[in-house]
């Protein structure tokens, strides 16, 4: 995005008071800790909730259902009041934001609200549906959500948007990976529901669609298209007698044959009808994606994968380009590091985490970084995550401090204390020094540790305890920027934002990381899409 990714931006004291998009309205309410909360406008509330929302996620102060209902209600409201902005958010959320389920839910609710309101102007509903579908299993996911909420009658914009995505996403390799019996909507079901015609510019797609329908309704007689090399190679493997299959894996060219046939690691054990031993893993490792490798480190060690194969996997896990392409959040690597079964994975995961934090800005001058380690920050990031917001905040705060020219790193809760670190030290080593500090005395921590810094950064869920000051940043002069990084998406903020030198961000995307240098260059920051 040229707005944020420009050469020649020189950091200097802002000559004006730039604005940022996440804005409070001036209205006050009581937050979940009994402190003063600052109401945000609807767009700001939805943005912060969207970038922190993993759907059906229980948080310390909000149940999963309550949180999802608030998200859906905000999308429905803004789909009618501000359809262009909301469509842009959903498009960005799926791509740069890398939040799959929230964008699918948002796309469905957007279209439902606009159809119910009879809205004709604004972005086409069909295009919005297509914009949130990026992976071949997602058309079925969206239909699963829609039918569970609104029944099996599909309006035309939903049908056409899904059909557009089907033509773009369905391939032989995708069919092997995602068209499984565990899915409520198989590829054939999706094709039947949306009546997707093949793309004339893609030779063989008509045969692929017919095969997907046969796999669903006539599996015993389904024959893959002769022109699809992946599907025909896969069929050849499936027709091998079980007794001959392991020899394919262990023989010369076994890894290449498995890759050519689109054989995933998930499917390999079922095909072998036997254990995933070291030979099986070593054959499929070359075809595995970076995060699939990270998730299977324990399986590799338990199977006895050789040091040579492990070294190849480790090299791919820690490759800077592979880390950038995977676009995984840093805490994914932290989770893997903490649960790695052996020391041979520690250094590659440490390097991968470092690569994933490259977009954290290198700030000049003196910076105060305050990391919230209160009790509410210890709720999981998602229902399936083994990590929590406290650790995500600590990783981000430590990275900011380590990359800054001169930073004081502080953890706070009921009390507060500096977190020591050395220049060039690993983020993971610094993380070990953080603790659990109880309540959320944000104002007291800011007042105690601010000593003429050029900026203050607070990484938090914003649910601060009561203070007579109201605004937790009141002890910092108005001429000094205070940046709040919101990791939870609760409704109320802990201070005003959007004007002057008070700004709030959400998410851990590249666009969010670039906002501090942009604002300090004197330029107002817009939404990242």
From TrEMBL:
GO terms for cellular component: cytoplasm; ribonucleoprotein complex. Signal peptide: none annotated. Pfam families: TROVE (PF05731). GO terms for molecular function: metal ion binding; RNA binding. Keywords: Cytoplasm, Metal-binding, Ribonucleoprotein, RNA-binding. Transmembrane segments: none annotated. Its main location: cytoplasm. SUPFAM superfamilies: TROVE domain-like, vWA-like. It comes from the Bacteria. Residues 29-365 form the TROVE domain. It is found in: Cytoplasm. InterPro entries: TROVE2 (IPR040322), TROVE_dom (IPR008858), TROVE_dom_sf (IPR037214), vWFA_dom_sf (IPR036465). Belongs to the Ro 60 kDa family. PANTHER family: 60 KDA RIBONUCLEOPROTEIN SSA/RO (PTHR14202), RNA-BINDING PROTEIN RO60 (PTHR14202:SF0). This is RNA-binding protein. It comes from Kitasatospora albolonga.
